[in-house]
Amino acid sequence: MIIPEAVFAETLLEFLSPVRKFLDDPTVSEIMINGPSQVYIERKGRLELTSVKFESAEDVMCALRNAAQYVGKHIDEHHPILEARLPDGSRVQAVVPPIAPDGPSVSIRRFFKDTLTMDHLVSIGSLTQDAASALDALVAAKLNVLIAGGTGSGKTSLLNLLTRFVPSGDRMIVIEDSREVEVQNAHVVYLEARPADVHGRHAVGIRDLFRSALRMRPDRIVIGEIRGGEALDIVQAMVSGHGGCMGTLHATYPRDTLTRLETMAMMSDVDIPLLALRLQIASGANVIVQVSRLQDGSRKITHITEVLGFDLETSKYQLQDLFVRRYGGMNAEGMLQSELVPTGVLPQFMPQLHEHGVDLPASMYLAAQRPRPLPS
Question: Which pLDDT score is estimated for 1?
Answer without folding.
Answer: 47
